[in-house]
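Support case: adenosine-5'-diphosphate complex. Customer-provided input:
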Amino acid sequence: MDIEIITSINKRLERKVIGMQTKYADIIVDISHENLDKTYQYAIPEELLERAVIGALVLIPFGKGNRLIKGYIVSITEKPNWKVELIKPINQIVDDALVIESQLIHLAYWIKETFGSTMNDALKTVIPVKKTVKSVEKKSLRLAITKDMANEYLETFKKRNNRGRVRLLEELVLQDVLDYEIVINKLNISRSTIQDLEKMGIVTTEVERMYRNPLSSDLKQKEKVQLTIEQQTVVDSITKEYESGIRNTYLIHGVTGSGKTEVYLEIIDAVINDGKQVIMLIPEIALTYQTVMRFYRRFGNRISIMNSRLSQGERFDQYERAKNGDIDIMIGPRSALFTPFDNLGLIIIDEEHEGSYKSENPPKYHAREVAIKRAELSNASVVLGSATPSLESYRKALTGSYRLYQLPSRIGAGQMPKIWVEDLREELKKRNKSIFSARLKELIADRLQKKQQIMLFINRRGYAGFVSCRSCGHVMKCPHCDISLTAHYNGSLVCHYCGHEEFTPSKCPSCGSKYIAAFGTGTQKVEEFARKEFPGARILRMDTDTTKNKDGHEKILSAFANQEADILVGTQMIVKGHDFPMVTLVGILAADLSLYAADYRAAERTYQLLAQAAGRAGRGDLAGEVVIQTYQPEHYSITTASKNDYVGFYHQEMNYREMLKYPPAAHILAILVASKDDKKAIFASELISGATKEWLKLEQIEAETTVIGPAAANLAKANDIYRYMIYVKQSEYDYLIRLKDYLEGYINYSEHMNGCNIQFDFNPMNSY
Ligand code: ADP
Ligand code: ZN
Ligand code: ZN
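Agent response - structure generated as follows:
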């Protein structure tokens, strides 16, 4: 290891600390502009030093005439970018109160510091960038006839089996006005259906009314339910604290169907009645029509829904409406967190354990942490909710940094389902070669006969329908990526990572044997088996292949909801947040596949998937049953899930994490070193690992810190780029931040890093 390099970097760092030099601020002047990275440097006069924080709104003399304009400080440095004599001083700091822009810039700075990214990447995440926007018309649909007439039409359409018309009319009878886009995208009504109804004079289309005409208040009242005592206790406790000015982070641990969403609605109501605004995060996959409508019915047009399909311009429009005070509630995935509400009172994160709350691109931030920071900056509370909380959150709730509430039972008659665990090894002993255990087969037949619905769920994480040779074991892999190819129906092999496609060979390329075939069970295989086993059954399949088209996903779900099929086969996609009252049986075909994923969160994911899947059964008045098929019936994630014993799972899993120093018992910094040149990547990752160890020695924390690697990543090669990993485990997050800062300096300094892409990820959610 190059000791010289390290000492010279340390010298540079020291110099920074010692001299009390003039400080300079980099300032952006147009924060909604495409050039967020365009900054201007100004000197900070001594008397302003204290107030010149990142995010501060300042006045600066600009251009030749030194006209005073507004700007925001985005970074502070002691290194002038150009001749000191030419740098003008900041004129004044406008306001100490953090305006929303200042708050968001400050948040960006915190993200940069906490998750390790450039300020520019952080700013781009946090600040909506205005692109030349074609203004979008907001259209809405309105019922043009009386409700009685509409009900008569409904009867006729029902008789004729016009499902689209029925769905639209039913909704309009409830609501009078509907957002056009929601009707098309979430309700899955075709434009031609709408045109037909327009021609018949049943509905009218209106432009730009949706956001100006809030729904009538009596309609909102109608949707209120009488909360149960358990629900009311949670609502009262949180709103009472809120009203007395206390801000906190709350975790609601409630089984699926325990009425968490109803609790959110009540708390939101209290907060917006107080004149404050609310951000509600829901994973995109759970943002179904049913969910969206519950919010619309309750809050009308005071809400706006964000999704990842929105163009940047549309998103900017939404942000503008939020800033202008046209809406009070923003609902959406991760990015909704940055809605520029300047009077934010509450952030809710539903399904807080979801992996999608962690960004996969720099800055690799976790929405939960950022939400708590944003809440702190704007004096808001945070409510987290889940049936299967992340270990991180549950631990904080147990140790008192979050406040914990439990909703242990389902609402009303809904019973928790009966859960069977079927040992697949035993099935094999009994010469059952089918993918269905005897119990599952029997129960499927029973439900088909009773005309109830069935969901068959295959856990595909960490697993692919790969093709291997039965003679020599050769596995067909992508030539560009280090992962196995997946067999498809059309006979080709596909790389799900880069899209590479090739024909399935008839002979093994390694030994020439003709016994080369797809191994294991994908969703297509399950569908095929089910068709053979239950010839009369109507089967729908939902996976990445059948949902490629826009809203393919919603179409399949609404067909299933309309009982156009008896069995729905799918991957994890089908287990999220859908309410199918006629589903009384859920089969989980290979529950333990996710246990083989090379990832310390494998058991946690398995528990979550099983609990979520089980949560689909028996949501209506009919009791449900769940069959878990597994090769490891004794594994604690399966035994606890089958008893719906989250707390039991938590303690066992926490023991494991404590023992191996995995989060949340400690923190991990993952360092990815990637390069087209394998040798360069190896060398660079060895240097970085060496620098890490030197630094740990200097800090005298090498004994309590574990450095793993460098080693090839799980995905050792992707798109012809070689990938190596270093993992550093430490119980103090701050040490890892400082290590990262140090390594960044080192990386900038060393020429051996050229041609390598190096990324940092704190407490990664996904394996590399
Ligand atoms: P979760 O979000 O915990 O899955 P939901 O809030 O979606 O639970 O509630 C499950 C079902 O029970 C929904 O259909 C909801 O409308 C209904 N529900 C919730 N609370 C009540 C209540 N107090 N009275 C009657 N029905 C309720
Ligand atoms: Zn072979
Ligand atoms: Zn590939």
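The pocket of zinc ion (ligand 2) is lined by residues 469, 471-472, 474, 508, 510-511, 513 (CB under 6 Å).

Case will auto-close in a few days if no follow-up is received.
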